[in-house]
Amino acid sequence: MTARIGVITFPGSLDDGDAQRAIRLAGAEPVALWHGSHDLDGVDALVLPGGFSYGDYLRAGAIAALAPIMTEVKDAAGRGMPVLGICNGFQMLVEAHLLPGGLIRNAHQQFIRRDQRLRVENASTAWTSEFEIGQEITIPLKNADGGYICSAETLARIEGDGLVAFRYLGVNPNGSLDDIAGITNPAGNVVGLMPHPEHAVEPGFGPDTRAAMRSGVDGLAFFTSAIAALSAAAA
């Protein structure tokens, strides 16, 4: 049976269509969901996409974290459903307390867009199982509020428990603590990161590689990892 992965659109979402396309390319069925609904339409996994939900008023992701559908997202995450938050979606996950810490304005106070090198730190989550620990990947990054912060106690726990999923390599683009680009919850079903894997899923449209310009497809493994996790759970 084909996995069905929902993508939630909020007012101001920009990358919901790209996330749906990435899911389709990975071999699953994308399902469009609406922020004002309480219906997850029977999906097997969820993606909270990038953008500027509610204009980033108050704090990025703060209002979206209170949207009606987030009640269902929290319940589903608590039951073990795979949930991926990308950029603004990551901001929603921390604001909804599904992941620890917070995200603030980039240290240089400017919007940044670059193809960013990352190191995979945790390859045992629902969204990273097709990577290897220590693997270097390149994923597009575009944000203004991507600086990851948390208390010293929380940082020690995140590092000690292996909850850092991805770390920036080469340059820390936004001043995140410990070069953290993405984290996971202890169960491994909820993952959030600032870079955009949905923009690196098809040759000709991704980051440059040594093989060819725009040929990078490192982002595809996020979505195939989720499909594999769902298949394993169903077996």
Automatic annotation (TrEMBL):
Pfam families: GATase_5
Protein name, per record: Phosphoribosylformylglycinamidine synthase subunit PurQ
Pathway(s) of this molecule: Purine metabolism; IMP biosynthesis via de novo pathway; 5-amino-1-(5-phospho-D-ribosyl)imidazole from N(2)-formyl-N(1)-(5-phospho-D-ribosyl)glycinamide: step 1/2
Gene3D superfamilies per the UniProt record, alphabetical: 3.40.50.880
EC number annotated for this UniProt entry: 6.3.5.3, 3.5.1.2
PANTHER family referenced in this protein's UniProt entry, alphabetically: PHOSPHORIBOSYLFORMYLGLYCINAMIDINE SYNTHASE SUBUNIT PURQ
Subunit structure: Part of the FGAM synthase complex composed of 1 PurL, 1 PurQ and 2 PurS subunits.
Superkingdom of origin: Bacteria
The UniProt record lists the keyword Secreted: no
Protein purpose: Part of the phosphoribosylformylglycinamidine synthase complex involved in the purines biosynthetic pathway. Catalyzes the ATP-dependent conversion of formylglycinamide ribonucleotide (FGAR) and glutamine to yield formylglycinamidine ribonucleotide (FGAM) and glutamate. The FGAM synthase complex is composed of three subunits. PurQ produces an ammonia molecule by converting glutamine to glutamate. PurL transfers the ammonia molecule to FGAR to form FGAM in an ATP-dependent manner.
InterPro entries: Class_I_gatase-like, PRibForGlyAmidine_synth_PurQ
Active site, UniProt feature: 87 (nucleophile), 196, 198
Catalysed reactions, as listed in the record: L-glutamine + H2O = L-glutamate + NH4(+); N(2)-formyl-N(1)-(5-phospho-beta-D-ribosyl)glycinamide + L-glutamine + ATP + H2O = 2-formamido-N(1)-(5-O-phospho-beta-D-ribosyl)acetamidine + L-glutamate + ADP + phosphate + H(+)
Statement: the UniProt record of this protein carries the keyword Signal: no
Broad class of the protein's primary localization: cytoplasm
Alphabetical keyword list: ATP-binding, Cytoplasm, Glutamine amidotransferase, Hydrolase, Ligase, Nucleotide-binding, Purine biosynthesis
Compartments, record wording: Cytoplasm
